[in-house]
Every structure is written in C-alpha cells, then in structure tokens.
C-alpha cells in the first residue's frame, strides 16, 4: 500500500508517497546509519537531481543501499 508521509526539510514542510516496504527499509537504514528518519530524508533530498521527485529519489536510494549491502555480503564470502 502507498502511504503519504510528510517531513520538514530545511524549514519547509514537504510530502511524499511511498509503499510501506520502502518506508520500512528507510527506517531500517536510518537506524543502521544512526540517523533520524528526517535526517536521512533530508540527505536524500539534498543529493537528488533537480529534475527528480523526492518519492522517486527515496526509492532509488533504498534500491542502491540494498544492492550495496548485497555486494558487500557477496565479497565477504
């Protein structure tokens, strides 16, 4: 299910829509990185291309993170 979320980034409220699975992964990643979820979202927002939307940027961030974790696990074997 896709849910609407909101966050304050640099003093401005913004909203984005994410599937529950992406939201759960974002929270897990934030915990692993010792960041607040708002801090992680702000980081992704700051790094995203100007022509991409925040929802898409968050999904791509999760995908890249998971692929990076998979690569690390494969290299450890």
TrEMBL record:
<dbReference type="Pfam" id="PF13467">
    <property type="entry name" value="RHH_4"/>
</dbReference>
<dbReference type="GO" id="GO:0003677">
    <property type="term" value="F:DNA binding"/>
</dbReference>
<protein>
    <submittedName>
        <fullName>DNA-binding ribbon-helix-helix protein</fullName>
    </submittedName>
</protein>
<keyword id="KW-0238">DNA-binding</keyword>
<dbReference type="InterPro" id="IPR038268">
    <property type="entry name" value="RHH_sf"/>
</dbReference>
<dbReference type="InterPro" id="IPR027373">
    <property type="entry name" value="RHH_dom"/>
</dbReference>
<feature type="domain" description="Ribbon-helix-helix">
    <location>
        <begin position="3"/>
        <end position="66"/>
    </location>
</feature>
